[in-house]
Amino acid sequence: MHSHGGNGLLSLDTMLGLAVLGVASLYLAGTVVTRRRGRPWRRMRTASWLLGVGTIGVVMIGPLAVAAHESFPAHMLGHLLAGMVAPLFLVAGTPVTLALRALDSRQARVLSRLLRSRPARTVAHPVTAAIINVGSLWLLYRTPLAEVMFSSAFVHSLITVHFVLAGYLFVASLVGQDPNPHRASFPVRAGALVAALAGHSILAKYLVAHPPSGTTAAEAEVGGMLMYYGGDIADAVLIIVLCLQWYRAAGKRLTPVTARLADG
Amino acid sequence: MASTHSAVPPPERVAARDARSAQNAWSGVLFGVGLIAFCDEAVFHQLLHWHHFYDRSTPDVGLVSDGVFHAISWFATIAGLFLFADLRRRGALSPLRWWGGVLVGAGAFQLYDGTIQHKVLGLHQIRYVPNLLVYDLIWNITAALMLAAGIIVLVYTRRRAPSAK
């Protein structure tokens, strides 16, 4: 048995719950400061951030978290929610924009210098982000790390946090609306997305063929199919948003002549 | 709206189509790849259950090819439709040329699936029956016909602009 709850004041669930509340509160505090300064903040962004944080909470605390230690399909559902669904909501919450507005000008300058630094730019590049994202999945499921994760609630939580961060990095590098003076071109972003999607699909079927250590063949088949088709749905959202951004950018370059033709 | 379907298109529209000749073809090809991959998944995997998600004999190289083409087709479906919307908004859509592209994309992908993936790489078969050859022939001949028809349409509708030479 893997205890996930416990009764102590400092049980894992309590700490995770506090962390999730902390991340939500920090964002809300940012919106309060921003509005007090007379700058607007869209409610949709706040709602999106809270949905993202809530999704992480569902994965890390409660029945799904307990099930995820026992069954590979439940773990895979957790991976999809934490690594693919939650990041979509979190990125739409544009936390960097909020921080830049809420911080005082000196702190904001430090933050933006930090984000423009070479290491930050390298990590936030779509190709790097895709490698970190899909590479760590291969590492996790193809090494004894999988067994360690299933035997320790703490390691499982750490890996879930890693899923969220790696997913955030990847989604932000592709379709993030936060300020990014070095955004990669559309073909590079599209290529990184297709490559990551391929790596994810290959791994899903590979796991059915070669179940991770400590997983039965039947569990691996259900988990692999969930990973394959669930990943498709999350990636379809990413592809649509990426293409929509291209469509809008191309629309801004339309000349009046072509606009008139389209009406005719 | 009526003028869109008039027999003789205005010269501006012809110019817009010619300028976007390649985009018309590519939008069709991408959508065709996605369409045939979607039919494969929906009809042969989910409805008929002829194809298997993973059959125990598929080698790893087959899984790599499957994953790569799955990703490409998923992206192509959506990107092809956005390119289509872009052509419409520019008044540069050439429906015939677009359909030619769809046939080329669908035919090429099905031919690759039927020859390289099913036969060479040993990814699942079309159907697990004794007379597999009949299924393989119908599959690949259909693919070749679509590809040939698509190429003919693309050649027939290619840009006749004097600037080419």
Describe the overall structure.
- The complex is a heterodimer of chains A (264) and B (165).
- Chain A has helices at residues 12-36, 43-60, 63-70, 72-92, 95-102, 105-116, 118-123, 126-142, 145-151, 153-175, 186-209, 217-252, 256-263.
- With 264 residues, chain A is mainly alpha-helical.
- Chain A has one domain (12-253).
- The longest helix of chain A has 36 residues, at 217-252.
- The termini of chain A are far apart.
- The radius of gyration of chain B is 19 Å and the shape is elongated.
- Chain B is mainly alpha-helical and 165 residues long.
- At the A-B interface, helix 11, helix 12 and helix 13 of A face helix 1 and helix 3 of B.
Give a summary of the structure in a few sentences.
The complex is a heterodimer of chains A (264) and B (165). With 264 residues, chain A is mainly alpha-helical. Chain A has helices at residues 12-36, 43-60, 63-70, 72-92, 95-102, 105-116, 118-123, 126-142, 145-151, 153-175, 186-209, 217-252, 256-263.
Output the radius of gyration of chain B: 19 Å
Oligomer: heterodimer
Number of strands of chain B: 0
Largest interface: A-B, 38 and 30 residues
Distance between the termini of chain A: 69 Å
Mean pLDDT figure of chain B: 81
What order do the helices and strands of chain A follow?
HHHHHHHHHHHHH
Order of helices and strands of chain B: HHHHH
* Largest β sheet strand count, sense and barrel closure of chain A: none
Global geometry of chain B: elongated
Helix content of chain B: over 70%
Tell me the total number of β-strands of chain A: 0
Count of domain modules of chain A: 1
| Overall form of chain A | globular
Helix content of chain A: over 70%
Main β-sheet description of chain B = none
Number of helices of chain A: 13
Helix and strand content put the structural class of chain A at mainly alpha
Q: Gyration radius of chain A, to the nearest Å?
A: 20 Å
- Sheet-strand content of chain B, in percent, reads under 5%
